[in-house]
Design goal:
single chain; mainly alpha; globular
C-alpha cells in the first residue's frame, strides 16, 4: 500500500512552525530551572508567556525579572528574536551557512515569512534582514548602555541593554525593570531622552518592514523612485505617529500625562503613540488613561505596524487601502489610484477580509472575556486589542485573568503574529476553483 506524502502549503508551514516553537518555549519555561521558585510551572501561564514572547506581544502573567531566572529570561529573549524576524529566516541562514540548496517551495515560504513580493532575490533579502537586525539591535544596545551601565554596573548594564534592544526592535515589550518595581516597565525613565528616543526609533525601524528598508537603501531615500508599497508605509506610518501624538497629548494632558511638565508631556504622548504600534512598553500609568485616550490607543493597536515587519495588527497598508477605497467610492471612481499607480481589486478584497477577520476576532473575544471576568469593557477591549495587535500594553488586568481568558488571549496573539488571513488560510482546505462566471444581480447596500 502506497502512503501519500503530506504536502503543506507555505501558509500551513508558517502556522505549524510558530505553533511548534511556542510548544518548545512552553516546555522550557515550565522547567524548574526557569522560575525563581524552582518548581515546575503551570502549563497555561507557561503557554501564555511563550506565546507572548514568540508572537512578540509583551502581555505577561508574571513580572519578567521577578519571576523568571536568567535561564527563563534567555528563553524568552530567544523566542522574541526568533519570533520577531521569523523562524524561517533563522532556518534559511543556517542553510546558507551549511551551503544547503534552498528549493522553490522553501523560497515561497521565505517570501511569505519575510514579507517579500517576489521569489527571486528572497535569500538575498533574508541576508539583509539578519544583517540589518544585528546593526539596529547593536546600536540600540550601545545607546541603552550609556544609561544602564552607570546605574547597574558593566555586567548587568550590558545584559539589560542587549535584552531591551532586542525586545524594542522586535516590538515585543518585555522588560527587566521589575528589578526596581514589578510591572513598572519604563515609568522610571519618563523624562530620559536617550532611553525614550532609543526605544521609539527601534520600534519604528522594526515596525516599518524589512522590504521597506531594502527599498529605501536601494533607491537612496528618493521618495519619487520608491515602490508604491514603501510610499504607502512611510506616509501612513508618519500620519499615524503625528496624529496619534497630537491626540494622546490633547486627551491625556490632564489624565495619564498630568504628573509631567513642559516638554515631558509631549515626549510622553509621542512615546504612547509609538509604543501602541505593537511595542508594549509604557512610561506612564495606563490605568489612568481617559476614555478618549483609551479609544485612540485601541485604534493604534488595532492598526499596528507594516507587512513583513516584527509588528502585528491589521498593518498600515491595509488601513491605507481601505481609506483609499472609501475615497474612490465617494468619488464614484471605479479605480483606486494613488501616487500615479492603480491598486488591484484583489488587494482591496484582501484588505477588507483582513480588517473584517480582526474585527470579528476582537468582538468575539471581548464579549467572551466580559462574560467570564468581572471587568469593565474599557479594560477588556484594551487587553484584547493589545493581544490581537501583538502589542503588550495593559491596564494591569493580565495577572488577574482566569486560565480561559489567558488561552483566548494566547490564541489572539498567535493569530495576530502570523496574520489573521494567514491564520484562517492555514486551516482551510485547498480546493480547485471552477472557472465559471455567474450572472450579475444588483443588491442594495448602505
Amino acid at each position: 500500500m502506497k502512503i501519500k506524502k503530506l504536502k503543506f502549503t507555505a501558509t500551513q508551514v508558517l502556522v505549524i512552525g510558530f505553533f511548534l516553537l511556542i510548544m518548545l518555549g512552553t516546555f522550557l519555561l515550565s522547567l524548574p530551572i526557569a522560575s525563581r521558585g524552582g518548581e515546575w510551572g503551570g502549563f497555561v501561564d507557561s503557554l501564555f508567556t511563550a506565546t507572548s514572547a514568540t508572537c512578540v506581544t509583551g502581555l505577561i502573567a508574571f513580572d519578567t525579572f521577578s519571576h523568571w531566572t536568567i535561564f527563563g529570561q534567555l528563553v524568552i529573549i530567544t523566542l522574541i528574536q526568533i519570533g520577531g524576524i521569523g523562524f524561517m529566516t533563522i532556518i534559511s541562514m543556517i542553510a546558507v551557512i551549511l551551503k544547503k540548496k534552498i528549493n522553490l517551495h522553501e523560497r515561497l515560504i521565505l517570501m511569505q515569512s519575510a514579507g517579500s513580493m517576489q521569489v527571486s532575490g528572497v535569500v538575498t533579502l533574508i541576508r539583509k534582514v539578519v544583517i540589518g537586525t544585528v546593526i539596529f539591535e547593536g546600536l540600540g544596545a550601545i545607546a541603552f548602555a550609556t544609561r544602564f551601565v552607570p546605574k547597574m554596573g558593566w555586567k548587568l548594564g550590558i545584559y539589560n541593554s542587549v535584552f531591551h534592544s532586542i525586545s524594542a526592535f522586535c516590538n515585543a515589550g518585555f522588560d527587566l525593570m521589575g528589578r526596581y518595581q514589578p510591572f513598572s516597565s519604563f515609568t522610571d525613565y519618563t523624562g530620559d531622552v536617550v532611553v525614550n528616543f532609543t526605544i521609539m526609533l527601534l520600534i519604528i525601524m522594526g515596525g516599518i518592514g524589512f522590504f521597506v528598508w531594502t527599498d529605501l537603501i536601494k533607491k537612496r531615500l528618493k521618495f519619487s523612485k520608491l515602490e508604491l508599497h514603501t510610499k504607502l508605509v512611510i506616509v501612513t506610518t508618519a500620519s499615524l505617529l503625528i496624529v496619534g501624538t497630537a491626540l494622546c497629548y490633547a486627551f491625556e494632558y490632564n489624565h495619564s500625562l498630568a504628573h509631567l511638565t513642559g516638554w515631558k508631556k509631549l515626549m510622553g504622548a509621542a512615546f504612547m503613540s509609538v509604543t501602541a504600534r505593537t511595542a508594549g512598553f509604557n512610561t506612564v500609568n495606563l490605568s489612568q488613561l481617559s476614555d478618549s485616550g483609551s479609544i485612540i490607543n485601541d485604534i493604534l493597536m488595532f492598526v499596528g505596524g507594516s507587512p513583513g515587519s516584527t509588528a502585528g495588527g491589521i498593518k498600515t497598508t491595509t488601513l491605507a487601502v481601505l481609506i483609499l477605497s472609501v475615497i474612490a467610492s465617494v468619488r464614484n471612481n471605479p479605480d483606486i489610484n494613488v501616487f500615479k499607480k492603480r491598486i488591484e481589486s484583489r488587494t482591496v478584497r484582501q484588505a477588507t477580509a483582513i480588517a473584517t477577520i480582526y474585527f470579528c476576532g476582537f468582538l468575539a473575544a471581548t464579549c467572551t472575556i466580559c462574560a467570564i471576568e468581572s471587568l469593565s469593557i474599557k479594560e477588556v477591549a484594551f487587553e484584547v486589542c493589545s493581544a490581537i495587535g501583538t502589542v503588550g500594553l495593559t491596564m494591569g488586568i493580565t495577572q488577574s485573568l482566569t486560565d480561559i481568558s489567558k488561552v483566548i488571549l494566547a490564541l489572539l496573539m498567535f493569530a495576530g503574529r502570523i496574520g489573521g488571513l494567514t491564520f484562517v488560510l492555514g486551516f482551510a482546505q485547498r480546493r480547485e476553483i471552477v472557472p465559471v462566471e455567474r450572472p450579475y444581480e444588483k443588491i442594495l447596500v448602505g
